[in-house]
Amino acid sequence: MANIHAGLGTSHIPLLGRIIDIGDSAKPDWTPVFSGFEFTKQWIQKQAPDVIILVYNDHATTFDMKFIPTFAIGCAEEFKPADEGYGARPVPIVKGAPELAWHLTEQLILNGFDMTVVNEMDVDHGLTVPLSMVFGQVEKWPCRVIPLAVNTVVYPAPTGERCLALGKALRKAIEQFPAELNVQVWGTGGMSHQLLGERAGLINQPWDISFMDRLKDNATELAKISQEQYIRESGTEGSEMVMWLIMRGALNRVKEVHRHYHVPVSNTALGHIIFEEEELP
Amino acid sequence: MNSNNKSYHDIPGTTVFDGEMARKGFHLNQFCMSLMKAVNREAFKQNERAYLDQYPMSEEQKQAVLDRNFTQLIALGGNIYYLVKISSADGLSVAAAVSTMTNLSTEEYLDMMRQGGRPPEGNRYPKEQQ
To answer: CATH 1.10.357.140: does it fit domain B3-128?
Structure first.
C-alpha cells in the first residue's frame, strides 16, 4: 500500500531557478536564501520519496485564458520544462506517475473533487523551481512527480477549506493504492507578495510568520481565510497560500522539522517549512 | 479598477483579476500569450502596430501596449502574468515592469524591497490613507 509520512511547503520564485541555473546559488549574496535549504537537501536524501504530488499554479504558461481549470492533475508519462518566454530551464524532464495519477483522479472524483485530467502539458517555474531548491542541479530528478495545478491566477481561487479537504481526500486515495510507494505532497507558492498596482511590493512578515505558526495545529482556522483577506493582508499573489493547505490536509498529526523565511527575493517573501508525521503512540 | 459592487474593490492600489476583468482583457491577454513564441516576439518587434492589429483588441488596449503603460493595461483587463510577457520580450525584469505601476523608480522600488517591502500598515483600507 502506498503511504505518506511527510510534506513540505515552499515558495516557487522564478528568480531562484535562474540563479541555480547560472550556477550562482553558492555566491555569498544568495547565502541567506539558499542556506535555508541545506537541511532540506539532506533530509530529502533520507526520505527518498518515490513520488511527489507537487501542488503549484501555472502562470499563464500551459493554461491561457482559453481554459482555466480550478484543479488539474497531470496524468502523463512525462512533462517538459516550459519555455516561459526566454527558453526552457536547463533542468531534467519531469517523469510522471500515470498509474498513481489516474488512481488518484478516479478516487478524487468519486469523492466529490472534479479534477481536470491533463495528458499533455509543459510545467513552468511553479513546479520546477521547488524541485531545484530541494534536489539542486541534477542529471535527472530522483523521483517521479504528479503535477497538481491549482488556479490562483483568475479570481476566485478555490477556498482554503476546499483545499484542505482536497488534501484529506488525496491522502485517502494515496492509501488505497496497492503498490508500496513512499509519497510526499508539496504545497508551493507565496508567501506575501503583490505584483501589480500602486500597492505592488507589499510584504506582510507578521502575517506570513503567523501562517507558518498555525499551519501545524490550526490549519482549519487558516482554511477560513478568504481570498479577499489574503489579498488585503498579504498582496494579490499572497492568496497562493491555499496550496500549502492541500499539503497540510494530506498529513495527519505532524511535527515541524524545519523552517526558513527570508525577505525579499525580488518581489516576494520566501517561506519554507517541512512537516513529518508523528508516530502514533 | 474593479466595479464598486465588489467587496474587494476598495483595496488600495489593487485590481483583482476577476471575471469582469478577464472578459475585458481576453484578447489583450491572448496577444500577450502569443509572445511566448520566439517567432512571434520577432514579428512583434519588427512592427508592433501591425502585429497588434491582428488581434481584436480595443484601440485603447493597443495604445497602452505601445506605450508600455502597465497601469493602464491592468485597468483594461490585462493580467500581470500575461503582461510580463511583453516586458520579458523587451528584456526587462519582472521587478522593473512591476515598479512602473508604483510611484517609485525601479531603483527606489528595489530598495524598498531590500528594506523588507511595502508595509501592510496604511495599505489595507482606503480610510487608512486619508
So the answer is: no
